Amino acid sequence: MSELPPSNLALFWAGVIALAIMVYVILDGFDLGVGILFGTTADEAKRVSMMNTIAPFWDGNETWLVIIGAGLFATFPTVYAVFLSAFYIPVLLLLFGLIFRGVAFEFRYRSQRLRWLWDWGFSIGSIVVAFVQGAAVGAMMRGIRVVDGQYAGGSFDWLHPFAVLTGVGLVFGYALLGAGWIVFKSDGALRDWAYARIGWLVAIVFVIIATAFATVLGVDAGAVAQGHLADRSWGWALPLLGVLALLAAAWGARVRRDAWPFAFSALFFVAAFLTLGVMFWPYMVPYAITVGNAAAPDASLGFLFYGGVVVLPVIAVYTIGVYWVFRGKVHGGYG
Prior knowledge:
Layout: H1 8-38, H2 44-54, H3 58-61, H4 63-75, H5 77-86, H6 88-107, H7 115-142, E1 146-147, E2 150-151, H8 161-185, H9 188-218, H10 222-225, H11 237-254, H12 260-280, E3 283-285, E4 289-290, H13 291-294, H14 298-325
Helix pairs in contact: 1-2, 1-4, 1-7, 1-8, 4-5, 6-7, 7-8, 8-9, 8-12, 9-11, 11-12
């Protein structure tokens, strides 16, 4: 299939979906991270305080995941079909994890006898969601087999050692983001508890990044050989920015600046996301289907444009409004 140049509408919708992914990763990433950390303490007071830090936000954060799925289905149907075929099992695990998280969030306050079950559901659900997202990213970095516009691989092609490594890396990355959020939103014993874990989480993320880099150089060069990062030397500034952001997050925890760990952890994720963008562009399905080839007809994209310019700002304003209303430290919950 010859590569078609993307239209302005195709570029617009690709940008919308990319922005939605980045917003989702940061917003849902921190509440998934809180869920991951939730399972590392048995202190009920700390667990209640952790949930209070994300109570007004967690369900609204997942709205951006709906935008991503609906946007792909409507504007890039080929990408939607290939991704769903390639990641059918991860998508099912993602949905189960999100369901368990949501149910556990509500039920743990209404069931003393089964609270242990809902607590485990909340924590394990968060870990599963984070892991399958990271594994999917690792699988995409290695490339997705596509023939005649259809997925040509197996159901477990995504479960590669490199993808498992990136899945574990995202679990700890989200945990770092969650620890930064807890520091930002809480005080007292819980904030001290989160501060004590940020340095360790930064160190673990560094080890995983170094292991992935060594794997790419020595064992599995195919993980990035097809990407365009090597062809775009300017793109290496983005991984460097990510490394500096991690160091700044650790330093922020050391000097106890409450906003720094979360802000710089978020910057690390932005740098990582932009690095993937440099590596993948112009492919939407690495390294088989480009933006131009994947886009729906311009007539469809134009029709959807008028709905998008109304709906997307409303969602953005709602999200900003929620974070503004519930700004500041959490003192005894939101009542």
